[in-house]
């Protein structure tokens, strides 16, 4: 189908704010509304009213709504999903509790493993076995499944997850189990062969459990959202952005809500990639800091890095393996609990700590005057003069400097014998250092030098901290795009209709079966394109990736391959592609061991125009600045009279000499004293280090 898309609306529900961006034939209108936890769709409706009024249109004029949300993530973290039954192969009942038996903190004698999403009494084993080649070794016990359907109905479960061993090779047992159960049950049933058809049973079982766990809640929410949008006159298609950065239909999202777990951050990465392409920047680090979390993503050649698995709800910060693994295609980034609402506190050793607990929108930081009395990063930024208490969020929220100072003095200052101002500086320094450390670790893990990148900062809080973060990372340039405060929502508007289909099929390169691979890829292409066609009938581009390794290795690397039918003669080409990619990761390839295919991926998305390119300007005429206020300067360690400049008064080619604060409706950009700001032709702010 072809949808007219002259007027597009993006809606991003975050932990603190819900961001709305409306594109009316190229002109952007945006707003931020506090997230409503009891009725999340209400914040979207409130935001729609604001931006349509500002644009002079009615909700009925909107052609398409694109939505991303943290609701699925929050349900997993806070364990607020449906009571879910797991039906699995006999002997594998405890896979999700035993995990991989690895210790993510080798020397921690009090190691705490995350609790499984589904308790043992709600896991039901049944006889039946498929082997690693997809052959049936033991018939499925259909009589036992009939009895289980009665048990599940009697106990009041809200959803069912089915995960059988090796179902990614042969899904027939899972499909048959769903068929039997659905005769007696009216609750949603998820099967791992559809949710995550990949090897490694712990990750696959956990992913199907997560999908089933959040499915009733997400389905109900998405249905409610569509009805309420229609009631207000916005009777247009609604699409969701998934964790891999593409758009899918609401129907698909309702069936596979686990694909939405990283949907908001994915929009931010797309936003940053679009800016990188506009300025022809091939090495970029995006920095997205909102009200609850901060995210770092590496972008090369205008494409965010991607992965096939990630973790949510980590019990140990930064500790890989301490969270709940979700095995789906995702834009790869590192995320820490350091947003504007993150709570500051002092630990037993007298160190300032920040997060991961957040004041969120309810009750909010102390300065919001909404019932919160614990100090947050926003309180510290306010005390340091970074924020205007009378013009926060476009003037919709009046901030109290007194309440912020009192909270910081009580919970941090008194414990460390520091004045509120010094304690506030300590809080923001800890935040910025945590973010810098996370960025360094993420870059090193990917074999990159973070200082060689240009930063792109967005989200309501990132422009407040970006310059200081650049100082710590040795980054000399940072871009703050137009609409940075609602960057993820704008990113939604730029996302393609796209879907990535995966399938595991272990095969040695010496035993490469071109015919079998072509059949499998044709099925993956049909699956991926089927989802894309739900939103467009335009041209589609495909990417084929094989995840490969040397035999005996524990993990795989992605190898891009041509989108065409393979022949037996292609083994030499595939071997060369693998070794070249391996050398990029590890310095050199290894001669001798067998090379294996593990998983295949087909990514399909519609073709989008790239837009105009701009040259990056690093110099300009110095702008005159009239208004000032006292803002804390990290370089001198004291409050300095600092220029306050409205962003709308700055024309392309103008230069703002730091220190300064560039203010706008949804955020403020702090230009620290080592930096100047140069306005680009499209209105983007470039922070450039003095002398560079």
Automatic annotation (TrEMBL):
It comes from Mycoplana ramosa (Mycoplana bullata). This is Hydantoinase/oxoprolinase family protein. It holds the Pfam family Hydant_A_C. Residues 528-678 form the Acetophenone carboxylase-like C-terminal domain. Coiled coil: none annotated. Residues 204-496 form the Hydantoinase A/oxoprolinase domain. It comes from the Bacteria. Residues 8-183 form the Hydantoinase/oxoprolinase N-terminal domain.
């Amino acid at each position: 189908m072809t949808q007219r898309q002259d007027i597009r609306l993006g809606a991003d529900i975050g932990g603190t704010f819900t961001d709305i961006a409306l594109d009316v034939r190229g002109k952007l209108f945006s707003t931020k509304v506090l997230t409503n936890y009891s009725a999340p769709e209400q914040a979207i409706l409130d935001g729609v009213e604001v931006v349509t009024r500002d644009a002079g249109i009615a909700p009925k004029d909107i052609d398409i709504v694109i939505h991303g949300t943290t609701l699925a993530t929050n349900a997993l973290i806070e364990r607020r999903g449906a009571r879910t039954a797991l039906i699995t192969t006999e002997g594998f009942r405890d896979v999700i509790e035993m995990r991989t038996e690895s210790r993510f903190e080798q020397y921690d004698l009090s190691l705490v493993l995350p609790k499984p999403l589904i308790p043992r009494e709600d896991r039901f084993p049944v006889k039946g076995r498929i082997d690693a080649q997809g052959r049936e070794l033991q018939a499925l016990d259909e009589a036992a499944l009939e009895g289980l359907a009665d048990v599940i109905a009697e106990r009041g479960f809200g959803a069912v997850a089915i995960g059988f061993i090796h179902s990614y090779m042969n899904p027939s047992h899972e499909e048959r189990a769903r068929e039997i159960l659905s005769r007696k049950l009216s609750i949603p049933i998820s099967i791992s062969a559809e949710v995550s058809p990949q090897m490694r049973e712990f990750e696959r079982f956990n992913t199907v459990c997560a999908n089933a766990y959040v499915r009733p809640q997400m389905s109900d929410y998405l249905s409610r959202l569509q009805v309420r949008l229609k009631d207000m006159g916005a009777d247009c298609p609604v699409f969701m952005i998934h964790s891999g950065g593409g758009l899918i239909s609401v129907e698909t999202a309702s069936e596979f809500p686990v694909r939405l777990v990283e949907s908001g951050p994915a929009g931010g990465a797309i936003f940053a990639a679009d800016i990188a392409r506009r300025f022809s920047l091939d090495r970029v680090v995006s920095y997205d800091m909102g009200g609850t979390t901060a995210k770092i993503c590496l972008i090369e050649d205008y494409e965010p890095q991607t992965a096939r698995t990630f973790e949510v709800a980590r019990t140990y910060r930064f500790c890989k393996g301490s969270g709940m693994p979700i095995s789906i295609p995702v834009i790869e980034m590192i995320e820490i609990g350091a947003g504007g609402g993150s709570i500051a506190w002092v630990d037993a050793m007298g160190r300032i700590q920040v997060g991961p607990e957040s004041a969120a929108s309810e009750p909010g930081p102390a300065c919001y005057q909404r019932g919160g009395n614990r100090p947050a990063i926003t309180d510290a930024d306010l005390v340091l003069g970074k924020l205007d208490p009378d013009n926060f969020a476009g003037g919709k929220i009046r901030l109290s400097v007194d309440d912020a100072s009192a909270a910081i003095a009580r919970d941090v200052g008194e414990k460390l014998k520091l004045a509120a101002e010094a304690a506030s500086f300590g809080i923001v320094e800890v935040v910025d250092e945590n973010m810098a450390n996370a960025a360094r670790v993420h870059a090193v893990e990917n074999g990159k030098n973070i200082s060689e990148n240009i930063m792109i900062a967005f989200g309501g809080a990132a422009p407040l901290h970006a310059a200081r973060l650049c100082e710590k990372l040795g980054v000399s340039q940072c871009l703050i795009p137009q609409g940075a405060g609602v960057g993820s929502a704008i990113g939604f508007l730029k996302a393609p209709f796209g879907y990535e289909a995966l399938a595991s099929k272990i095969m040695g390169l010496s035993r490469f079966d071109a015919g079998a691979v072509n059949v499998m890829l044709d099925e993956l292409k049909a699956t991926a394109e089927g989802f894309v066609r739900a939103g467009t009938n335009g041209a589609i581009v495909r990417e084929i990736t094989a995840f490969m390794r040397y035999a005996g290795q524990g993990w795989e690397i992605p190898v891009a391959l041509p989108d065409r039918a393979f022949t037996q003669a292609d083994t030499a080409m595939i071997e060369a592609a693998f070794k070249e990619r391996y050398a990029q990761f590890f310095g050199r390839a290894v001669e001798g061991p067998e090379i294996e295919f593990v998983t295949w991926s087909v990514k399909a998305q519609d073709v989008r125009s790239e837009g105009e390119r701009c040259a990056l300007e690093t110099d300009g005429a110095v702008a005159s600045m009239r208004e000032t206020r006292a803002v804390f300067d990290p370089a001198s360690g004291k409050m300095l009279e600092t220029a306050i400049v409205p962003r709308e008064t700055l024309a392309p080619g103008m230069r703002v000499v730091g220190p300064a604060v560039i203010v706008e409706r949804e955020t403020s950009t702090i230009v620290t004293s080592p930096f100047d700001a140069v306005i680009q032709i499209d209105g983007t702010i470039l922070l450039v280090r003095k002398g560079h």
